[in-house]
Every structure is written in structure tokens, then in C-alpha cells.
Amino acid sequence: MTGDTTAPEFIDVGTGEERRPIAIRHRPATRNSPGPALLWLSGYRSDMLGSKAVAADQLAERLGIACIRFDYSGHGESGGVFTNGTISRWLEEALAVIDHLEPEELVLIGSSMGGWIALRLAEELRRRGRAPKVKGMVLIAPAPDFTSELIEPALTDAQKRSLAERGFFDEPSAYSPEPNIFTRALIEDGRNNRVLKGIIETGCPIHILQGMQDPDVPFSHALKLLDHLPADDTVLTLIRDGDHRLSRPQDLERMVSAITELSGIPRLDGS
Description:
The chain has helices at 51-63, 87-101, 113-128, 146-151, 157-166, 184-192, 219-227, 249-263, and strands at residues 9-13, 20-27, 37-41, 67-70, 105-111, 133-140, 168-171, 180-183, 206-211, 234-239. α1 (51-63) crosses α8 and α2 packs across α3 (113-128). The chain is of the alpha/beta class. The chain is 34% helix and 21% strand. The longest helix has 16 residues, at 113-128. It is globular, with a radius of gyration of 18 Å. The model has no long low-confidence stretch (mean pLDDT 94).
């Protein structure tokens, strides 16, 4: 796959026992006036080598702009323990990657949980009041506040006991032979990172892609997110037969089209 043949670089995030190496793959821009860099933000238990992440990198190559991909701690090629992960921890890593590479403008591409990270990242960057500027967002089956909105209301008595007694519960995954693990720390930290509590001021246009056959993040959740975003610069595309992954060729083409439009950069090949 294009962009995946070279070894990643690593940066350390955190200090002492919290220190963990974060793997980054960075495609530099090749244009004289490159425009925004694409920043890929993966979902829960996903990594930067997935088909959507690679498609974003291949698009950046065609557009001549930069693409930044990285793995959260406990994911993919990064170090750290997965069960230590929280939204705050993974957000800290996203900010550290940005600070390391210093892009001037970004288009954020967030898949599932990565959509939550993207929204929080935009908030933190706006709070800083300096570069980089977020030029746009493409959110794919976004799952903002999924711990409080989707997990907590559905907890069984057994899962509640497991959280209280063991600090986590697990459940079978449809995407991996290994079960999904959700920790008490993740759920408690999620409450501190909620974004569905008022108008989300991102300062940029947003395109949401959402499958209507998504068993993990129902399309009603995307509609709820839409209620919290300024209506004049947000587009929601509902894909009637789309699932959660949205990784079919036609889904990838929709994603590529949305990214291209928000980047404002025509392809170098003229297409």
C-alpha cells in the first residue's frame, strides 16, 4: 500500500511512567503552495494502516499535500498499554503529533471514535488561538460521547458489576477475534470530554458520512451530532446500505471526494 513501505518515526509523549512512544507516518507536501495537511484520526482499536487511512494518504499524494497518520498508545505500532487509554490520553497524543510536525493548516479526518477526537482537537486548537488552523473536517460514522451516549445506557447488571469489581468489562468484537475491552477509566474520562452538550464551535465546514445499517453507531447518533453543529457549514451524507466501517470502494470514493472538496486543492494530475 502506498505510504506504508517505510518504517514510522516515533515521538515520546508523557513523562515518567506515563511515557509512551507514538508511531507516526508523515507524507510531506510536494506542492510549492501545499495547502492544508490531512490528519487521520483512527477509531477505537483501529490503526493507521487501515484502508480508509491509506486511502487518505494516497489522496494526499495525488493532491501534493501532506498527510499525517499516527497510532494512539496501545494501538498499532505505538507503545503503551491499551487499557490505560482514555479520550484525554489519546487527545494528548494527537496534540503532541501536531506540535511535533507543526502544520499550518489541517483537514481532520476522524473515523468512529476518531470523530470524537477530531471535535475535541478542534476545541483545543481554538482555545490555543494559534496555528494550526482547522480548515475542515470529514467525520466517518462519528462516535462523539460514545461512552456516555451509547455504552453507559446499555450496560447490563453483569457489566456494571464487572466495572465496579474489576475496573473493566469485555464483549465480543465483530471486527477482531479479541474482545472489546471498556475500562472504568475510559468511561469516567469520557464524561469530562463530552461535546454533545451545546453548540460545538469548530470554526470550519464539516462533512459527515454515516451508514444507515451501522450496528455500532446508529445513524440517529449522527443526527444528534448535527443538532449540535452550526447548520450553515455542515453536510450529512446518509448511506442507506452503509455499515460502520464504510470501507467499500464506493464508500472510500465518497470519503475522498469530501476530503478533496474541503482541502480546496485540485489534483496535480488535473482530475
